[in-house]
Amino acid sequence: MDLYLGIDFGTSGARGAVIDEFGSLLFEARYPFSMPQKRLDEAFVHSEWRKALFALLEQISGELRRNIRAIAINGTSATVLLCDAVGEPVDAPLFYNDARGAVMLERLRGVAPENHTVLSATSSLVKLLWMSQLPSFSKARYLLHQADWMAFLLHGQLGISDYHNALKLGYDVLELKYPEWLENLQIPIQLPKVLTPGTPIAELKAEIAAKFGLPSSCLVCAGTTDSIAAFLASGAKHPGEAVTSLGSTLALKLLSRTRVEDSRYGIYSHRLGDLWLTGGASNTGGGVLRHFFSNSELVKLSREIDPRKTSSLDYYPLLKPGERFPSGDPNLLPRLEPRPNNDVEFLHGLLEAIARIEARGYELLVILGADKLSRVYTAGGGAANEAWTAIRGKYLEVNVVRSGNTEAAYGTALLAMRGLVF
């Protein structure tokens, strides 16, 4: 029996999913990070990522490992790092929401097309330009995304990415090449070779196959981003269907026949077969909720919320200044006051605020030309919150259902099994 492994690197931990050739889920593995990624120092970040990858492999039984034919990995979008000639990181990675590169936007506006996806304070290209000023840049030979580097640890070939991760680097997903304007920047570093997500790259390194009892013929495939993996897992297939990922952040993906791009609002479109997956990611989401409440408190307090009532609290829940979508405003301030003494009221206000941001995001996508929203699938940890689902349905005015599978690792396993066949 042929099996397939998908690995998801999120913000709070890594997960793995093993499926068979019919798409049935056989095994799930989890590895929680020891602390939030943004607080890890350089050496610990890389050792933690490596440790997580190999710990996930170890959790899978030997019987299952012997039958794994392909592996794919997803990572957080626009999390990037610089590596030397042998693939060792030369500095700390910059995470998906790191906006220090905003100081490079003026330079980039003079080169990139108006309102291009890279014209965002958190794009991969802006991060690369910012990192090019660091002393460590002289040691760098490759720019890799998180998913690229994790896959490299398995197959050993440097400088390979996929066109989902490479979108925010400036790769032209319509023409399937780097545009001339990007080449004109003459960045003295090797940009990754870009493949279609799910494309086999190479077999596992011999030492990895031997150590974990994996077939020497097991293929490592080009990966994707975490939110696209969640979309692939959801079961959404038709234009107008969308997936909201309620993880640490809030990611929206709407399947459309029309490509929508506008950096002013943090909107971009990923290629998905003959269709487009248009959307964006807000800095609000579960990370804000977990800042104030434990998981058990969220479950308990949510049960006491009456979703039919509208909160009077007017919040914009962020942990720090800066928003990516639906307004690309790196200076947007969090709005979390006043805080009522009643925690149920406070949580109700937070959930409604995030629901309003979600509804505004989909509304904006449609205004700019995407297909009309018809159904929203929900993935991520927030998918199980019934009160939140009811609140979101009230604002979205369409059916809100839980994804067929809520784990991005499952979607990535599907990618390893069938490539990007939609």
TrEMBL record:
Its EC number is 2.7.1.47. GO terms for cellular component: cytosol. One of its GO terms (biological process) is xylulose metabolic process. Residues 272-418 form the Carbohydrate kinase FGGY C-terminal domain. It comes from the Bacteria. Residues 3-232 form the Carbohydrate kinase FGGY N-terminal domain. GO terms for molecular function: ATP binding; D-ribulokinase activity; D-xylulokinase activity. It is an enzyme of class 2 (transferase). Keywords: ATP-binding, Kinase, Nucleotide-binding, Transferase. The keyword Phosphoprotein does not apply. This is D-ribulose kinase. It comes from Cyanomargarita calcarea GSE-NOS-MK-12-04C.
